[in-house]
Design brief:
By secondary structure, the chain is an alpha+beta fold. The chain has four domains: about 90 residues, Rossmann fold (3-Layer(aba) Sandwich); about 60 residues, Dna Ligase, domain 1; about 130 residues, ATP-grasp fold, B domain (D-amino Acid Aminotransferase, Chain A, domain 1); about 90 residues, Phosphoribosylglycinamide synthetase, C-terminal domain (Glycinamide Ribonucleotide Synthetase, Chain A, domain 4, Alpha-Beta Complex), CATH 3.90.600. It is built from 14 helices and 23 strands. It binds adenosine monophosphate and glycine.
Amino acid sequence: MSETVLLVGGGGREHAIARAIADAGAELYACAGNRNPGIARLAADFESLDTTNPQAAVSYAESVDATLAVIGPEAPLAAGVADALDDAGVYAFGPHENEARIETDKAFQRRFMRRHDIPGCPDFETFEDVEAACAFIDDYDGDLAVKPVGLTGGKGVRVIGDQVTREEAKAYLRESDYDRVVLEERLVGEEFTVQALVANGRLRVTPAVQDHKRAYEGDEGPNTGGMGSYSDAGLALPFMSEADYREAVDVLKATVDALDGYKGVLYGQFMLTADGVKVVEFNARFGDPEAMNTLPVMNTDFVEILAAARDGDALPRLSFRPEATVCKYAVPEGYPTDPEAGAPVAIDEESAGDALLFYASVDERADGIYTTTSRAFAVVGVADTIAEAESIAEQALAVAGEDGLRVRHDIGKADIVQRRIDHVNELRGG
Ligand code: AMP
Ligand code: GLY
């Protein structure tokens, strides 16, 4: 049967999902708050709507006779869009509001790990009172990560000893209006992501990816939604072993076993530390940018996976091309603190050459495409090695030019990859 798939969300991640759906030959319909020109070109129709309004998503799904839905971002999951689509008889690949708490409520996430004895949980405490949290910061022997309980777009965490001092962390808590926070042991090591596709009690895992959250080259500056990411030709990354990768997969397996009825993507953010693999967080969706590393090298038909999930079948085994990927986001000048919108985007899917181009937050006007105040577009190189993939991504960025844009050119370059390897060797006492 030919499927009609509704995609919810309009960022770079969703452009990658849209391409996977279109490549599988399904009919694609898309809805998002912003009009993503790349998704719009692939879709039979693109509807602008508030994706946190479950009824709006259901009405659109029904109007296009969708047989499946994929939800890209976390906000619609938190708003119960998957619940509403399922209730309306449109199977949504994405967890219900209650299961999405693994991402949307960091206190729930940590307590869940403790209750089910999921390996890799850092030492933590949860607080509903700012002064009690500040007292804990004063008394704790060691550095802490300060994490607001709710969604903050990856920008709410402050790490003592890395980004802030103890005093600054307390001032941050007192100035903010967060009513619930988690304080947890600071994890030191190298971060990596492993995403699993989950349905019917089983999971299928994808290759590890490393995101770069800091805004500036050399991992300086404020945290962002992610400036770019890379993956290697195998399942692991150059700074980790296959055994480290399997340790992360075991954490995801234990989590899926403990979660009742979870479906969609389970995203594990891990820290490879001197004491092994620890969990930084879980997300209830593909990563952005990580989806742009993963989906372009996946051979398995994405829509077959969705249909198997819906039909209660075992998910097909995933197969990946043995190729490395490097993804670099172009963001507006001043992002993330004082972004300046309105720069023309001088690249499109054709002029990107050998690289893949994924649009994110852009504004399509009669005379062209312009940046907004969020990440604008990403280029992805795919090749046998990280170095070749990096150079393909850079060739595309040269076409795009630099006017009004900023890029972390260091992502995927040999010296930063080597620094990661050295860091882990140092932690392991090598
Ligand atoms: P999150 O919003 O949970 O993704 O956190 C954003 C970033 O904060 C992570 O990618 C890490 O770089 C950092 N972070 C979060 N928790 C910890 C922790 N326990 N130790 C060190 N860094 C952390
Ligand atoms: N790349 C981080 C995230 O998607 O949350």
